[in-house]
Design a protein that fits this description.
By secondary structure, the protein is α/β, with parallel strands linked by helices. It has 10 helices and 17 strands. Strands 3, 6, 7, 8, 9, 16 and 17 form a 7-stranded mixed β-sheet that branches. Strands 12-11-10-13-14-15 form a 6-stranded parallel β-sheet, sandwiched between helices. The protein has a two-stranded antiparallel sheet with strand order 1-2. Helix 4 packs across helix 5. The longest helix is centred in the middle third of the chain and has 14 residues. The chain starts with a strand and ends with a strand. Bound molecules: zinc ion. The site of zinc ion has 9 residues, from helix 2.
């Protein structure tokens, strides 16, 4: 079988590799679709993702769907031929955070496609991979493998909204109209927000935000005054830009909430603590997801949520370099996926 491996910065190779073996409680999965996400892009173009540096060849890929090829002894949740969403979370299930129901904060997390640990935890950009039964979510219905691969980023958006608290009757701002920003906008609509305004510095992402239901869009670079006055109950920072975080803090009403979803550059940031203090803002982080992955699978498989406007292209694994180039270009793409040939 073939695997996509990043050896170093801009050194991505499609390599033949041994078929994986399965053991008790494990499932062999054939890749359906795998979305290229921000961390994959950092690993390929920079050889690192923040402080996580590639020290051995890494198979990226944290957002995937697939089809069950084979099951190991004792597996009952899925059977060969099942269409599945795949959770990249391998939380331990035993630490205090896991037991509290916050597996995203697990002390022993092994997240797929990440160089945070050494040896690295390999991801899903390969034809076949083996995971634990509990990471497999069988679905029926007409949802495509491409749409199903949005379960992970949709879970991120749902978790951000869940962190914000009740959105019924609330006005919402989302800064950043990439995949996570648009999925957070969708999640805010599901949660009952009366309006969802989305800002970005490019036109194409804003057009996508309108396609998925944003009530208003703002070119933050061209009309900064539009975000200068306090006007939103809740603001989600999903762009990874400090300027956008400042806009969230400025545009939040007194007593409002700001949720940080995006990853800001790893450098010292002058922080807007006084604004948070005088406006009594609740400033919260949202990291990955917990139970929201299950919700994302339910929203996608029932087709209650339509993510198709966000899927910009699919490439066979062999064309991974071309796919990464397109994924990086936000004037041309939102989500780009790899599929098994
Ligand atoms: Zn744990």
């Amino acid at each position: 079988m073939l695997a996509c491996r990043i050896h170093a910065k801009e050194d991505l190779r499609i390599e033949p590799t041994a078929d994986p073996e399965i053991g008790p409680g494990q499932v062999l999965i054939r890749l359906g679709a795998g979305g290229i996400c921000g961390s994959d892009i950092h690993y390929y173009f920079e050889g690192k993702n923040g402080s996580f540096v590639i020290r051995e060849p890494l198979i990226p890929g944290q957002e995937a769907s697939g089809v069950v090829a084979k099951v190991g002894p004792g597996v009952t949740r899925v059977k060969p031929g099942d269409k599945i969403a795949v959770s990249p979370s391998q939380a331990c299930g035993q630490c205090d955070y896991c037991r509290e129901g916050r597996e995203q904060l697990c002390r022993n997390m092994r997240f797929l496609g990440s160089a945070s640990l050494y040896p690295h935890v390999q991801g899903m950009f390969c034809e076949y991979f083996v995971l634990a039964e509990r990471q497999c979510y069988p679905v029926g219905g007409d949802v495509s493998l491409g749409e199903l691969a949005f379960a992970e980023p949709l879970a991120v958006g749902l978790h951000a909204v869940n962190r914000a608290g009740d959105l019924l009757g609330k006005s919402v701002l989302v800064t950043g109209a990439g995949t996570i920003g648009c999925l957070t906008a969708i999640a805010a609509q599901l949660a009952g927000a009366t309006s969802v305004t989305v800002s970005d510095v490019l036109d194409r992402p804003l057009a996508k935000a309108r396609e998925v239901g944003a009530t208003r869009t703002i070119r933050a670079d061209q009309e900064p005054q539009a975000l200068a006055a306090p006007q939103f109950d809740v603001a989600f920072e999903a762009s990874g830009s400090f300027a956008a975080l400042k806009a969230c803090v400025a545009a939040a009403k007194r007593g409002g909430t700001v949720v940080q979803v995006g990853t800001l550059p790893h450098e010292p940031l002058p922080f807007v603590v006084n604004d948070i203090m005088v406006k009594e803002l609740d400033f919260k982080g949202a990291f990955r997801w917990g139970i929201e992955f299950d919700w994302a699978v339910a929203y996608l498989s029932s087709q209650r949520v339509d993510v198709s406007p966000l899927l910009s292209g699919q490439f066979p694994l062999q064309d991974a370099v071309k796919a990464f180039e397109l994924a990086k270009d936000k004037t041309q793409s939102t989500k780009v996926q790899l599929v098994a040939a």
